[in-house]
Amino acid sequence: MAKKEHVSETPATQLLKASKVVFTEHPYAYLEHGGALHSAAELGWDPFHVVKTLIMQDQDAKPLVVLMHGNRKVSTKNLARQIGAKSVEPCAPEVANRHSGYLVGGTSPFGTRRSMPVFIESSILELPKILINGGRRGYLVGLAPQVCVDLLGAKAVQCALAD
After folding, report:
1. In a 10 Å sphere around its CB, with 0-12 CB exposed, 13-18 middle and 19+ buried, how is residue 159 labelled?
2. What is the pTM (predicted TM-score) of this model?
């Protein structure tokens, strides 16, 4: 029997454990700019069930988190309209790193450095289980999507565009 690869704790897994959330660990070979499509292929998951954590900002440079299917893009126009912002755009990588406390490619919505509003594509909440970043490049955690609402106060939005 193969020994399960142990991944050291991250702020995300510490928060999940402290909140008594049941989750599974899914390490994989990280690829620079591989994104959710690469991790889904590595782990044998449908990219629709692998959720990207995107750090974005509104017109006032206030940061926010968007959780999106791995094989979809965010319609920033639709998102801005739904959250009452004039505009929304992705943060530059160094700005995203500063807001979240994680490196881009290893950004988890759990255990971020600063508290930010979280928005989740509504169809993610219909899935039985998702894989989402566990706070390190090459490391996803599997959990029920409802955890994002319960733990992060994520608000459902409809802003997905087919990739």
Report:
1. buried
2. 0.94
